[in-house]
TrEMBL record:
It comes from Paenibacillus contaminans. Keywords: DNA-binding, Phosphoprotein, Transcription, Transcription regulation. Residues 3-119 form the Response regulatory domain. Residues 247-346 form the HTH araC/xylS-type domain. Signal peptide: none annotated. This is DNA-binding response regulator. It holds the Pfam family Response_reg. One of its GO terms (molecular function) is DNA-binding transcription factor activity. CDD domains: REC_YesN-like. InterPro entries: CheY-like_superfamily (IPR011006), Homeodomain-like_sf (IPR009057), HTH_AraC (IPR018060), Sig_transdc_resp-reg_receiver (IPR001789), Tscrpt_reg_AraC-type_HTH (IPR020449). The modification 4-aspartylphosphate is found at residue 54. One of its GO terms (biological process) is phosphorelay signal transduction system.
Length: 350
């Protein structure tokens, strides 16, 4: 039986999660904790196979707990869950080796799918040391080209770059044990390349792990089909006029987000489109509204500025385009889960 530790500060949610886990064949709840501090103590005294944790909790959030737990138990499988708009945290968790995330309220079929994947993953890795994909750095140029061909919907180039990358991975001889790590690192790397180069990002569903078979060649093909599905999705959503217009709007956003009177109207005038038409194109291509994108960018920049111990919160407010302190605090807490001052405490800053 695979043992699971459930960490959630709300008791009724925690109990419901435990009940759902007990209904999955091959799994048993090893313990419950209401915060990360309790969870770390339990991890050391009764090491489980799987940690399932909420992201937002007092004293220590789920991402901090995951990082600390991996130091204690490097082979531990971790699943995050949250009811907030936490995808920046989720991406960081996946980069650190978290297996998956589930949106609250957690659906039974999603939980069963994830637990089956973890069972297969543990079976594949049994008796073997966990290996890191240091080759990703060596193949960075090839992975860059793969990311660009995906975003630019260049199918021939995509097939060429994927053939090179997957062939090298398969020649490692350990693909069966490391397919989840390969998948997570590759998706994270592709997303980062697209974010840096084009100011965009992959849709959330792309980050969910696949139901891998245990056969390395078949699993490589599953990943290829997954990425090709993303490419085809981009192709159907986009024509070149849309891409040009939205790219122009993105450059405008990234250069003007700190201006307090910045608006969709200004962007529409810049692109030569009506406000409703630009709004619709932007939502189709970016997967979020114009102002949702602006708000997330502003809060991301605010988080970066708050990491400077010398920066004053009221200075950060103006630096990211807000004029009202109270409104900024409400938006920051809604997206990050903490007030700016509590966020700094989480970082160990005053």
């Amino acid at each position: 039986m695979l043992q699971v530790l459930v960490v959630e500060d709300e008791r009724w949610i925690r109990r419901n999660m435990c009940k759902m886990i007990e209904e999955v064949d091959g799994y048993q709840v090893a313990g419950e904790a209401k915060n990360g501090v309790e969870a770390l103590q339990m991890l050391q005294s009764r090491p489980p196979h799987v940690l399932m944790t909420d992201i937002h909790m007092p004293f220590m959030n789920g991402l901090q707990l995951s990082e600390a737990a991996k130091r204690v138990l490097p082979m531990l499988e971790i699943v995050l869950f949250s009811g907030y708009n936490d995808f920046e945290y989720v991406r960081e968790g996946l980069r650190q080796g978290v297996h998956d995330y589930l949106q609250k309220p957690v659906q039974t079929e999603d939980l069963h799918r994830t637990m089956q994947q973890i069972a297969n993953k543990i079976a594949h890795k049994k008796g073997k040391l966990h290996q890191q994909f240091v080759w990703m750095e060596a193949w960075r140029v090839n992975a860059n080209r793969l990311a660009e061909s995906l975003w630019l919907v260049d199918k021939p180039k995509f097939e060429t770059e994927w053939s090179v990358l997957s062939s090298e991975w398969l020649k490692n001889g350990d693909g069966q044990e490391n397919v989840y790590e390969f998948f997570h690192l590759l998706i994270y790397f592709i997303n980062e390349r697209i974010r840096v180069n084009y100011g965009a990002q992959l849709p959330e569903h792309v980050f969910h792990p696949l139901d891998f078979t245990g056969d390395a060649a078949q699993d490589a093909e599953l990943i290829r089909q997954h990425l090709m599905g993303v490419l085809n999705e981009l192709l159907t959503q986009r024509n070149w006029r849309k891409s040009h217009v939205v790219t122009k709007a993105l450059h405008y956003i990234h250069s003007e987000y700190a201006h307090p009177h910045f608006s969709l109207i200004d962007a529409a005038e810049l692109t030569g489109l009506s406000q409703p038409y630009l709004s619709r194109l932007f939502k189709e291509e970016m997967g979020r509204t114009f102002m949702e994108y602006v708000t997330e960018l502003r809060i991301d920049k605010a988080r970066e500025l708050l990491e400077n111990p010398d920066a004053k919160v009221y200075e950060v407010v103006g630096a990211v385009g807000y004029t009202e302190y109270a409104y900024f605090v409400r938006v920051f807490k809604r997206i990050v889960g903490y007030s700016p001052s509590d966020y700094r405490k989480q970082l160990g800053l005053k």
